[in-house]
């Protein structure tokens, strides 16, 4: 009997499986053992062919050639990873291999990675499936003892194929149609366009917003400030006559305590991180983009091996991880959190169904630290920040809830109610982790029901209603994950919840980056603004492509395919019909795209006008003719700080004319001068450090233990 070939999705996973299966002999792109050979993909090795693979005419973009609806989709090997594909192909065709175990990620896309390779190789050997939710030795061993028949996952594969084909048909045709119609490089897609529409919709809300003045009534008694309870839940007054009438009515009146309610409450521990929640917190706390957070996580996962798989949409772990939790706590070496980790090791861990639930673990479990000890000096500053977030959340999840006493006091001044709420902390629980000993808002409330109280002062504060806030990457990610407010039908809301919103945890960062790179949006002080191009694209695309409902409808159908209730060809035929409809709508649309960023400069390649655009890295010039493709950077944002005001500066110019400019205070300095000054400062810093070190040595030597050494140091001149 021959050996079993195990196909993993990534080298790191393949090596772990190979270690557990005793595959000790290393070869090019694989590990070999007595019973098993483990190899891996590098993400996707095979993909759907580009349009030009179907016909010569598709090499040029022409509206008359649309829609492109090839009857049979072709699979092609990705050039960049063709070497590894050939390794896998040769192993699959080897006479020594009798069966194949698919060990790619346990999910729809993982199934697609493996099955496309098998289909392209045209191998007909028996297929089994490793379906596990974690990569512990125990989980891998148990998984291999309980391998599933590959046929059980055929429908899941069909749903993955259907999703991929649908994105090809709709995305490529709509992108080409818009671009050909307006001779501007435009793109659209079922995730990208609804995301852009959210940003444009928010901007329109801000522009339409009209501020309204309001007042909030307050009174103070016994040095406690009470807030007016309002009428029908509204604590704001928008009519100054009504405001004055209430003030006049209760002026010089005594108060009476109507109620003092005390309740013991618990604030539950937070959920563990999935990727999106981690990206949201990293953006809020450090201003990191979603893409940067994912990059840092990939480094922590692949290079440093101190966190688990990052591209997860689960906030839970499976039961088989529980026995490893104390070992993971022991791996935490951060001085900030080490004492908390040690305390948890000695105590009973909070293992609740908010953290451990096999049914809610999807392709991968939540992001938590691994058992590997973290050498913090090996981490970059940004890696350390992300690692600290993961560690802090892990400790919080395993800690006890925060317990507090909530005290609500209501007083009546004539017939107007005023109230105040306090929280007296009884047990900080998870709130103690990483917190300074700040004021916990503990108050002694000296009020009893029925007491008469003297009102020291009655007054009001004035405010103005604020428009909705512009999106940050954090708030945009949150709405991508939960876009229910953008659809009306309850069934679609439910579907969007069940499918986890629009996009996936693995693709949302790339979708946001694409919006920047296509110049649909720009970043201004951490806020996302749509550009004129972005605003116009939303107007130019067919209406239904802008709504998350399209994704919801697709996901409903794809789920039915995975359950065997709908056949993949039926779904694809509907997608083809839909593609014909949206291309026809673009062809018949009489809208005109207008550039509002044309400069006086001409393209050196074709002579057309150049457009000035902003991206995350700075300003650049691009040719108005999308077929030309000329680009030139005007300035780029750097990490260099202005010596005057410490704001980030931009760099302009080329060659020896490169110059730093601060847009905040106007500071300017040539790059050559900047570098020369920095080198001089670095030299001074080094000398200063030497002096500091030697002075410290002298202080040590001043101690009675070694006066001779102190005398010798005192003679040196620094």
From TrEMBL:
UniProt-listed SUPFAM superfamilies: Prokaryotic type I DNA topoisomerase (SSF56712)
Catalytic activity: ATP-independent breakage of single-stranded DNA, followed by passage and rejoining
Keywords: DNA-binding, Isomerase, Magnesium, Metal-binding, Topoisomerase
EC numbers for this chain: 5.6.2.1
Positions marked as site (Interaction with DNA): 61, 168, 176, 311
Catalytic residues as annotated in Swiss-Prot or TrEMBL: 309 (o-(5'-phospho-dna)-tyrosine intermediate)
Molecular function in Gene Ontology: DNA binding; DNA topoisomerase type I (single strand cut, ATP-independent) activity; magnesium ion binding
Enzyme class: isomerase
Coiled coil: none
Region (Interaction with DNA): 187-192
Domain Toprim residues, every copy: 3-136
Pfam families with a match to the protein in the record: Topoisom_bac, Toprim
Domain Topo IA-type catalytic, residue spans: 153-583
Binding site for Mg(2+): 9, 105
The protein's name in its UniProt record: DNA topoisomerase 3
Gene: topB_1
